[in-house]
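Key result, reporting period 2: structure in, sequence out.
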C-alpha cells in the first residue's frame, strides 16, 4: 500500500476476495467511459454480462505473474497540504475510484480474431480505469506505473475513438498497430486496436 498523486490517493493490491468490488467499479467505469463514445446502452449491456466479468476476474487474478491494484481517495488530502498532511485519513476501503491489472498474454480471445498473437508470456495491460471525477489528477499514471514497470515491453487493446486513452499510452511509449477489428457481443458496435511498446509484433 502506498500514497500516490502527492498523497491524494492510496494504492493497494487487489486480492481474490475482491471480485465483487472489482467488477462493480469496472462496470461503473465502462459506462462512464463508453456510453458517450459507443452508444448510450453500452453500460447496460456490460452490466448484463456481470457473471462473465466475475469469471474473467477470477481467471485474471489467478494467472501467475498478474499485478492488480485498486486506488482509493484519501480524505485527509488537501490541495495545499501535500503528502506530509495526507497521513491519518480514514480510507473507505469499500469505495475504490480506480483499478489496473496486467498479466502475461495472450488471452484466449486474442487467438481467435485473425491477427497474429504476441509471443506467449508477453505482458498485457488488461485493465486501467479511473472514475471520471479523478481525471486529470495523476491517478491514471500512478496506476499505470503500479502494474507496468519502466520500459517493460507490453501491449494493450483500446477502443477506437478513445483518443484520450490513445494519447495517454502514446506518451508512455506505446505505438498504435493501426489494425482495428470489430468487437462482438456486448462490445459491439465498437472497434478495438492494439498498441505496443518494446515489442516486434508478428506480421
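The corresponding designed sequence is given below.
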Amino acid at each position: 500500500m502506498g500514497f500516490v498523486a502527492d498523497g491524494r490517493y492510496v494504492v493497494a493490491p487487489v486480492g481474490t476476495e475482491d471480485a465483487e468490488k472489482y467488477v462493480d467499479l469496472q462496470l461503473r467505469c465502462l459506462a462512464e467511459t463508453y456510453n458517450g463514445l459507443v452508444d448510450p446502452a453500452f453500460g447496460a449491456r456490460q452490466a448484463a454480462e456481470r457473471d462473465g466479468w466475475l469469471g474473467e476476474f477470477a481467471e485474471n487474478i489467478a494467472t501467475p505473474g498478474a499485478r492488480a491494484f485498486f486506488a482509493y481517495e484519501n480524505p485527509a488530502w488537501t490541495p495545499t497540504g501535500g503528502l506530509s498532511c495526507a497521513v491519518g485519513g480514514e480510507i473507505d476501503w469499500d469505495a475504490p475510484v480506480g483499478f489496473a491489472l496486467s498479466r502475461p498474454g495472450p488471452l484466449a480471445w486474442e487467438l481467435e480474431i485473425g491477427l497474429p498473437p504476441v509471443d506467449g508470456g508477453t505482458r498485457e495491460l488488461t485493465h486501467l480505469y479511473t472514475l471520471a471525477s479523478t481525471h486529470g489528477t495523476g491517478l491514471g499514471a500512478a496506476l499505470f506505473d503500479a502494474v507496468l514497470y519502466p520500459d517493460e515491453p507490453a501491449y494493450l487493446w483500446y477502443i477506437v475513438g478513445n483518443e484520450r486513452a490513445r494519447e495517454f499510452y502514446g506518451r508512455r511509449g506505446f505505438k498504435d498497430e493501426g489494425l482495428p477489428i470489430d468487437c462482438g457481443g456486448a462490445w459491439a458496435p465498437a472497434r478495438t486496436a492494439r498498441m505496443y511498446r518494446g515489442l516486434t509484433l508478428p506480421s
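The chain has a mean pLDDT of 93. The domain at 2-197 is CATH 3.40.630.30 (Aminopeptidase). This case is discussed further under Risks and Mitigation.
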